[in-house]
Automatic annotation (TrEMBL):
<feature type="compositionally biased region" description="Low complexity">
    <location>
        <begin position="257"/>
        <end position="266"/>
    </location>
</feature>
<feature type="region of interest" description="Disordered">
    <location>
        <begin position="251"/>
        <end position="270"/>
    </location>
</feature>
<dbReference type="InterPro" id="IPR013103">
    <property type="entry name" value="RVT_2"/>
</dbReference>
<protein>
    <submittedName>
        <fullName>Retrovirus-related Pol polyprotein from transposon TNT 1-94</fullName>
    </submittedName>
</protein>
<dbReference type="InterPro" id="IPR012337">
    <property type="entry name" value="RNaseH-like_sf"/>
</dbReference>
<dbReference type="InterPro" id="IPR043502">
    <property type="entry name" value="DNA/RNA_pol_sf"/>
</dbReference>
<dbReference type="InterPro" id="IPR039537">
    <property type="entry name" value="Retrotran_Ty1/copia-like"/>
</dbReference>
<dbReference type="InterPro" id="IPR036397">
    <property type="entry name" value="RNaseH_sf"/>
</dbReference>
<dbReference type="GO" id="GO:0015074">
    <property type="term" value="P:DNA integration"/>
</dbReference>
<dbReference type="InterPro" id="IPR057670">
    <property type="entry name" value="SH3_retrovirus"/>
</dbReference>
<dbReference type="InterPro" id="IPR001584">
    <property type="entry name" value="Integrase_cat-core"/>
</dbReference>
<dbReference type="GO" id="GO:0046872">
    <property type="term" value="F:metal ion binding"/>
</dbReference>
<feature type="domain" description="Integrase catalytic">
    <location>
        <begin position="1"/>
        <end position="118"/>
    </location>
</feature>
<dbReference type="GO" id="GO:0016787">
    <property type="term" value="F:hydrolase activity"/>
</dbReference>
<dbReference type="Pfam" id="PF07727">
    <property type="entry name" value="RVT_2"/>
</dbReference>
<keyword id="KW-0378">Hydrolase</keyword>
<feature type="compositionally biased region" description="Polar residues">
    <location>
        <begin position="223"/>
        <end position="242"/>
    </location>
</feature>
Length: 429
């Protein structure tokens, strides 16, 4: 830990011409030692410690550690990679986080804040996907393959390329020339081919007998000519017809085999001694579709949840200004001195994005509302009412207008809720 911090300290001074003035850590053994304390004194850096069992005093670092750990966990779970690759997932997570915009930097990325230029996203690939690096220099002869299937596990810190893991030899290749298949994940297939050790040789119940129970190596066997059973040939050559040519009595025989010899006994015994092979997407060729809608959702503009977030964008500031002007023009409130005996409610900005029929943004709407949940029933109010018509009411009105042959007009009233007359006194700050 001490040597890594020295490398980080020297990198900050050399690359960015900055000095670390204060370091805040917990009282771990990697920080409380003679070498670390002597280095802080020599460099003139203040070393602050948090109180025992009080990680909240170093909340910024703790929250970032949680962010990184959650990203690492997501990468490993999505790719089903083993936990032994957690260090590569950690470096990949940091590589991605440094290229994501953050509100603390005014929607800039950490990479742009450090290097004064926006990062590139063209080189980003999905962690754990299938890749084929160019391995011609590693070939021992001209007849060997110049590539082999590997697993993408990250980006090297000192080279412009990709890290490709050979799952057979656990050798990591660093190459710039790599072909990716981001729809296939090798560790998904590895786990799907692991046989179930707890499986028994008994025939499953009636409702658990699938048509895929017949494995491929039984299907390829030649039908025997010594048996007089006419249904043995469809079972060995056409597994899909097992349920079309077998009645309910035969299926019950599969679920509860009898002791009497029957023509289907040999077939049932063959099914008992076989292994059920799992059918994966890679075998059938049916790959999981890409999450296109999810990508659209991520690219859609986010609706702010607070005034601080909305004030950072020009269109939301304009929407709040229009709302405030409407409140003043309608005479919504009167300024009065506050009293300690009054139940003064707070207020909150609510934001919403309205869209046109083609999906384009129509307007940005902001509404200033009182925190009504702080009112007490029976003391501040006795009943609630919302002047919103239900769909059946609209249908009755339209039906009545059609019956009378009346024209129907539609209009939109801006700030319609401000035109209501409030009889009760409500104090808001």
């Amino acid at each position: 830990m001490f040597f890594k911090f020295q490398e980080f300290y020297n990198m900050i001074r050399c690359q960015f011409n900055k000095t670390i003035k204060t370091l805040r850590t917990d009282r771990g053994g990697e920080y409380i030692n003679n070498s670390f304390q002597q280095f802080c004194k020599t460099s003139g850096m203040r070393h602050q410690y948090t109180c025992p069992h009080t990680p909240s005093q170093n909340g910024l670092a703790e929250r970032k550690n949680r962010h990184i750990l959650e990203t690492v966990r997501s990468l490993l779970i999505h790719s089903k990679a083993p936990h032994s690759l957690w260090t590569h997932a950690l470096h990949t997570a940091i590589h991605i986080i440094n290229r994501l915009p953050t509100r603390k930097l005014k929607n800039k990325t950490p990479h742009e804040s450090l290097y004064s230029k926006p990062p590139s996203y063209q080189h980003l690939k999905i962690f754990g996907c299938l890749c084929y690096p160019w391995l011609r220099p590693y070939a021992k002869s001209k007849l060997e393959s110049f590539s082999k299937p590997c697993v993408f596990i990250g980006y090297p810190s000192t080279q412009k390329g990709y890290l490709c893991l050979d799952p057979d030899t656990n050798h990591i290749y660093t190459s710039r020339h790599v072909v990716f298949n981001e729809q296939i994940f090798p560790y998904h297939q590895t786990q799907s081919h692991v046989p179930n050790q707890n499986s028994t040789n008994t025939i499953p119940p009636l409702l658990l007998v699938p048509s895929s129970l017949i494995p491929p190596h039984v299907q390829q066997q030649q039908p025997t000519h010594t048996s007089t059973n006419t249904r043995s040939s469809p079972i060995t050559t056409q597994p899909d017809s097992i349920f079309t040519t077998t009645n309910l009595t035969d299926l019950q025989t599969l679920g509860h085999p009898s002791t009497e010899p029957s023509p289907t006994t040999s077939n049932t015994q063959a099914l008992r001694n076989t292994t059920h092979h799992m059918i994966t997407r890679s075998k059938t060729g049916h790959l999981k579709p890409k999450q296109i809608l999810n990508l659209t959702h991520q690219l859609a503009p986010r609706v702010p949840t607070s005034y601080t977030q909305a004030a950072q964008h020009k269109h939301w500031r304009s929407a709040m200004s229009q709302e405030f002007q409407a409140l003043q023009s309608q005479g919504t409130w009167e300024l009065v001195p506050s009293s300690p005996h009054q139940n003064v409610l707070g207020c909150k900005w609510m934001f919403r994005t309205k869209y046109n029929s083609d999906g384009s943004i129509a307007r940005y709407k902001a509404r200033l509302v009182a925190l009504g949940y702080k009112q007490e029933f029976g003391l501040d109010y006795t009943e609630t009412f919302s002047p919103v018509a239900k769909i059946p009411t609209f249908r009755i009105l339209i039906l009545f207008a059609l019956h009378k042959h009346w024209p129907i007009h539609q209009l939109d009233i801006s700030n319609a809720f401000l035109h209501g007359s409030l009889q009760e006194l409500v104090y808001m700050k």
